[in-house]
Amino acid sequence: MSERADVADVIVVGAGLAGLVATYELVRAGRKVLVLDQENEANLGGQAFWSLGGLFLVDSEEQRRMKIKDSYELALQDWLGSAAFDREREDHWPRKWAQAYVEFAAGPKRSYLHGLGLRFMPNVGWAERGDGLASGHGNSVPRFHLTWGTGPEVVRVFLEPVKRAEREGLVMFRHRHQVDELVVENGAAVGVRGTVLQDSAAPRGVKSSRDKVSSFELRAQAVVVTSGGIGGNPELVRRNWPERLGPAPARMICGVPAHVDGRMLEITEQAGGNIVNRDRMWHYTEGIRNWDPIWPDHAIRIIPGPSPLWLDATGQRLPPPYFPGFDTLGTLKHIQRTGHAHTWFLLTQTIIEKEFALSGSEQNPDFTGKDLKLTLNRVKKGPTGPVAAFMEHGEDFVVRRTLRDLVDGMNSLGSTPELDYAQVEREVLARDREVDLAYSKDMQLMAVRNARAYFPDRLARVAKPHRLLDPAHGPLIAVRLNLLTRKTLGGLETDLDARVIRPDGEVFEGLYAAGEVAGFGGGGVHGYNALEGTFLGGCIFSGRAAGRALARSLA
User: Fold this and answer.
1) More exposed terminus of the chain, fewer Cβ within 10 Å: N or C?
2) Which ranges carry the FAD-dependent oxidoreductase 2 FAD-binding domain (predicted)?
């Protein structure tokens, strides 16, 4: 059986955050929208639902209350220093998107979201602290604004008005509709063709079947592609892996569900859209295997404070500036060139209680559930419940009283090469000798003290420096860290109205793209590096641009 219809002004392919934002903007203008997604209704909101809900804002009310001096000029300096745009053609639109996005983050972004009902935690986080140079990569000041309610709340403020529009007849959802082809006539996108998949009752994030039931063809005045990136497709990640990051890893664990497969990138390219900067990507080095997985190879990222001692697979300490939370891709590049994919955190009970956070809405039930009483427990002694569960059940955690027993436990996990106790002991003792000095040459300890100069970090995020071998701060803890797939930084080239660009530089009429499939705007708004809190924000900004541009242009 085949389905053919012309039922809406716009077809949106992908019901993640960017698709919901574009739909929200279209229905505000009275346009009729058909939203297609290959997953079931349980997956509305896509990856954004699983996120911690951090958003990049500049000179916000929250920053000013924390006495953080920020500005558009400083943020743009940080953005461009991180992006390091260096490609004349491929970075043409990303440069323009970068400037526009920082203007949005320093201008209407907070009021736009606040008007929808989104609220932020009072303390601003300092993510991706950088490579050590004012003109280089990283955030000069804290800019990571954590949503009260995390990722599900970011989804909710757009999904609720979209669902109201569905009840009013302006929005239709077609779940389990997998797009296989863009319909192009006279050089313009006029619809999509694809496969209706077998109904699925799988919970959110669980891998679903691809069994075919029927086919469909649907038409509209325009198509918006908001289908996400490639992080759930490790083979595609390896195919696009850049040489500058070292050899492509043979083993990665997945930070996103399997449906983040990158299919629409190839489908759009085959139809005539241009993909740029496909070798730019964002993966984390602090991945741990989820002891209670939802999707295949389910990984959780540790969001660390700056204090853990970071050792490579051979027991050598990582060099500056590759400290926890500082330079994600610089650290990844260094690790890959060691010839081993895993590394180790060494820390104490005191450090894990104050500094370990886990990415993901489900790993932060206090913030996600807006439970103030539970949130206040974070300042009490002891790790959070989810961290404690990983310490007990996680296969990457080792907890011991002595360093000798700790190294034996690390070796018992079966990773190669086997660690040499004497080497690990040298690194620990060298670091510990510096802790009690009034002045130190150890740049990590300098960074810890700098972090503690920021009151919210000193209060709840960064432990007071102490010797790792001080039994008063024990037991000792080791965590095996794995490479974790996450984000596509390149993608479909788009202009500032989110219109897809063809390889010859001309606009692909009727075709728009937003979110991760468009490199969060332009085909790579982040350049080579990201500043964190910019992925959800990129979905919002680019989805907003697509929806508003279409609302203006449609007949």
Assistant:
1) C
2) 9-536
